[in-house]
Design goal:
By secondary structure, this protein is an alpha/beta fold. The strands form 6 sheets. A 4-stranded mixed beta sheet has the order 22-23-1-24, covered by helices on one side. The chain has a 4-stranded mixed beta sheet with strand order 2-15-17-16. It is built from 14 helices and 24 strands. It binds uridine-diphosphate-2(N-acetylglucosaminyl) butyric acid.
């Protein structure tokens, strides 16, 4: 298992280019299951989660050709209509195969994911929606077995906004008979990106980006070519890196329009953000101020930035209240940040962070993807040496992160243990 070792205290200065979005790429690659000829996707990030979805697609019968960050992908015939437990337990987004398989091949057998480090994360809303569209669903031996001759359009209201739930049903509805209306749909940019791809494939989807999406089913979709948007969470993580290290980073390929909730808070915290030719310049200084944060679905403050923001608040002046409303257990990084000297108290869904003048390096353990990023950020700003273990979590979602940080002047290295 690899470890990342950071010697903290260096200002991060220079340019960094943001990679393709993980959470856009995962549903888009799954959407290739809806067509029978070669699709080409560019700017696919090289990440563990992308390897997992590729393994899943190969298992299903997809052919994949790879060249740099481009993937050519075709599913002509079905080998297996499902996602096995081994893959779903390493990556819950494997459940994104459910909608496409069921709608194109009339059956799907996808493992139920089970619990997760950040919350229970059930799939009841995905299943409720598919049942409303006429699927027959049975849970047997830990698997969802779904069948439908042809899914039928339906009006579906999600009680809770769900990102992959919205994406799964959008894909299922793209080849269904009739019109599907999704109410209280997720408005995340990654949902819009998937709708763009489905529309380029000849689908008929309107309203993506709002809370009501209408999908008119078609008989057939055609293959397409698409360049995946940059990763807003990676960009946000580099913004915080600049803020925490008194840095000056030009972030290239930065999807700033999708980061409004974060940039408002960063500016309030006295981080300077300016759009200029070629990117977004982010500058930190030594007078970071505390701000309160409450996570919520897009366009609210992203839960995927909560841990990184908490690392920053650990060294800001004043008291910050961070409220997590999306996942019930997404404070696993708190005890690790405390080991580095952070003063954080948890009270239910709130974390109360009292900023300290500095953190001190320590051996810490990553518990999930974004928690890992927060520990790396804390390590970059801390005095002394930080050793982050279990970094396989980090490799799921950040492409070449040590290389990119090193390019900005960080003293960071990966060691095999
Ligand atoms: N929920 C239900 N029932 C369902 C589906 C969801 O109760 O059937 C609940 C969840 O338990 C959670 C809330 O709804 O409390 C929101 O979950 P959502 O379904 O939106 O999350 P997701 O689709 O599983 C995606 C991202 C996550 C990101 C969340 C929230 C992908 C592949 N994953 O997960 O990304 O945190 O949306 O924005 O898009 C990450 O990249 O680190 C990551 C965890």
């Amino acid at each position: 298992m690899d470890k990342i070792i950071i010697e903290g205290g260096n200002r991060l200065i220079g340019e960094v280019k943001i990679s393709g979005s993980k959470n856009a790429a995962l549903p888009i690659l799954s959407a290739a299951l809806l067509t029978d000829d070669w699709n080409t996707f560019y700017n696919v990030p090289k990440l563990k989660d992308i390897d997992t979805i590729k393994t899943l697609l190969l298992y299903i019968g997809t052919e994949i050709e790879e060249s740099g960050n481009a993937l050519k992908i075709r599913t002509k015939t079905l080998k297996s209509p499902g996602a096995p437990y081994e893959l779903v337990k390493t990556m819950r987004a494997s459940s994104l195969a459910l909608g496409p398989l069921l709608t194109r091949f009339k059956r799907a057998r996808v493992s139920l994911p089970g619990g997760c480090a950040i919350g229970a994360r059930p799939m009841n809303l995905h299943l409720m929606a598919l049942e409303k569209m006429g699927a027959e669903i049975k849970i047997e031996s830990g698997y969802i077995n779904a069948e439908a001759d042809r899914l039928k359009g339906a009006r579906i209201r999600f009680d809770i906004t769900t990102v992959t739930g919205t994406e799964n049903i959008m894909m299922a509805a793209a080849l269904a008979d009739g019109v599907t209306i999704l109410e209280n749909a997720a408005q995340e940019p990654e949902v819009v990106e998937l709708a763009n791809v489905l529309n380029k494939m000849g689908g008929y989807i309107k309203g993506a980006g709002s809370d009501c999406i209408t999908i008119e089913g078609v008989d057939r979709l055609k293959p397409t070519t698409y360049t995946i948007m940059p990763d807003r969470i990676e960009a946000g993580t580099f913004m915080i890196a600049a803020g925490m290290t008194e840095g000056d980073i030009l972030i290239k390929n930065c999807p700033i329009r999708n980061l409004e909730a974060l940039t408002v808070k960063l500016r309030e915290a006295e981080v300077e953000i300016q759009t200029e030719n070629g990117g977004v310049r982010v500058k930190g200084n030594n007078s970071l101020r505390s701000v309160d944060i409450k996570t919520s679905p897009y366009p609210g403050f992203p839960t995927d930035m909560q841990a990184q923001m908490m690392a920053m608040m650990s060294i800001a002046k004043g008291l910050s209240v961070i409220t997590e409303t999306v996942f019930e257990n997404r404070f696993m990084h708190v005890s690790e940040l405390r080991r580095m000297g952070a003063d954080i108290r948890i009270d239910g869904r709130n974390a109360i962070v009292k900023g300290k003048p500095y953190l001190s390096g320590a051996p810490v353990m990553a518990t999930d993807l974004r928690a890992s990023a927060s520990l790396i950020l804390a390590g970059l700003a801390a005095e002394g040496k930080t050793e982050v273990s279990r970094v396989y979590h980090l490799d799921r979602g950040y492409e070449r992160i040590e290389e990119k940080l090193k390019g900005l002047g960080a003293k960071i290295k990966r060691v095999k243990t």
